[in-house]
Design brief:
single chain, 434 Repressor (Amino-terminal Domain), disordered N terminus
């Protein structure tokens, strides 16, 4: 086995376990994880799946990010992305101070179009440009909403906060992502927009999904669906409702509840058949393709890796599908390929994720764990695999 970096979840799990003065067998019993799995994960022989990391984080009473190592500060500094975090943090903090006396907002239409532009850039995977432009736009939208508190201006501000959530989540700053969602709720309530309220609950549910709090995530999905009942019936409501069902399906999959996952996938499929492709409706990427891709996600979360690979092979991703969503799919498929022993296919999927959305892929914890698993499985390190690891900072 080739030597590899200590920057993988197994090393961090071992460190946290020793800090708690637990043996491997004691931690395995507390987390309901097999002893064999834990020992292999700590040694770096086996990649740590998100469900295993979640179970161990709960048993150790630490945040999931402590075990995944997020945020990846060295890489953020190399990419000069770290310098945008404090301006985003500051702008999120001064949301209630009223209009900035030095700011003169553009017209409502111009600010709204700029907020839409940032949403589109997130889906294109251009995180750095979004992070650079976001603080100024948030400040402008905040001033506009305070000076002219129309529903339109509050919706635009809520969109800015939603983008702040997207950026901080992708870069691993979960504390800021939580604050951004609170600000989104604050603006959505002033806009009296149940669609935004439903979307906010969906994003909260995903935050709890990443924190391995699946029960809380499901409760938030239910709250979001209830909020959407107050929205006007039509295609937009169907899109947001369908996306909530997709989120619920993945939550159920991670919780190993096949029946519930299938039920939510079925409802999402029914709505997608009605809406058709709707990738730009609130930039949720909803439609038949997203339902098919989420089926792969659910099967992966259920540890049904061979089936996930088969379904992925039958799933056609349109060329114009959002790069960030396509890259995430390839990252998940790489994990499934690795667990079925298709190591070369797994690496090809990681490379494809990098081609589609390099900034997002570099900071994705699943990518890092999958790479570590590929590295362990390879008796000899091909040059391109070594270069990929260097790019990740491992």
């Amino acid at each position: 086995m080739p030597p590899h970096s200590d920057a993988h979840a197994g090393t961090r799990i071992a460190h946290s376990r020793k800090a708690r003065r637990l043996t491997q067998r004691e931690l395995a019993e507390l987390a309901h994880v097999s002893y064999s799995t834990l020992t292999k994960v700590e040694q770096g022989i086996l990649p740590a799946s998100p469900s295993v990391i979640g179970a161990l984080a709960r048993a150790l009473s630490v945040p999931v990010t402590e075990l995944t190592g997020q945020p990846y500060l060295d890489e953020l500094r190399k990419d000069q992305l770290d310098r945008f975090i404090q301006p985003i943090r500051t702008t999120l903090d001064v949301y209630d101070l009223g209009p900035d006396p030095d700011a003169v907002p553009r017209s409502a239409g111009e600010v709204e179009r700029d907020a839409e532009r940032l949403c589109a850039l997130v889906r294109a995977g251009d995180i750095k440009r979004v992070a650079a432009d976001l603080p100024g736009l948030m400040a402008e939208a905040t001033t506009a909403a305070h000076l002219d508190p129309t529903d339109r201006n509050w919706r635009t501000l809520a969109s800015c906060y939603r983008t702040a959530y997207d950026v901080t989540t992708k870069l691993g700053f979960q504390d800021l992502a939580t604050i951004a969602l609170d600000r989104m709720d604050w603006a959505a309530r002033r806009a009296s927009d149940p669609l935004l309220g439903g979307m906010r609950q969906y994003m909260r549910a995903l935050a709890y999904f990443r924190a391995s709090e699946y029960g809380t995530g499901q409760r938030l999905i239910s709250l979001g669906l209830a909020a959407l009942e107050q929205a006007e019936a039509g295609r937009v409501r169907d899109v947001v409702t369908g996306q909530l069902h997709l989120g619920a399906a993945v939550l159920a999959g991670r919780d190993k509840d096949l029946d519930r996952a299938e039920g939510h996938l079925g409802e999402a499929r029914r709505l997608a058949d009605r809406t058709g492709p709707a990738e730009k409706v609130h930039w949720l990427s909803f439609g038949p393709t997203n339902v098919a891709v989420h089926r792969v996600s659910v099967l992966t979360e259920l540890d049904r890796y061979p089936e996930a690979v088969r379904v992925a092979q039958d799933t056609r991703i349109p060329d114009d599908w959002p790069p960030s969503r396509s890259a995430h799919h390839h990252a998940e498929l790489a994990r499934a390929e690795l667990w079925t022993g298709r190591v070369d296919a797994a690496f090809k999927n990681l490379q494809q994720a990098r081609r589609l959305a390099p900034q997002q892929t570099r900071y994705h914890p699943i990518v890092r764990e999958t790479y570590a698993g590929i590295e362990s499985a390879k008796r000899r390190m091909p040059e391109e695999l070594h270069h990929f690891g260097s790019w990740l900072g491992l």
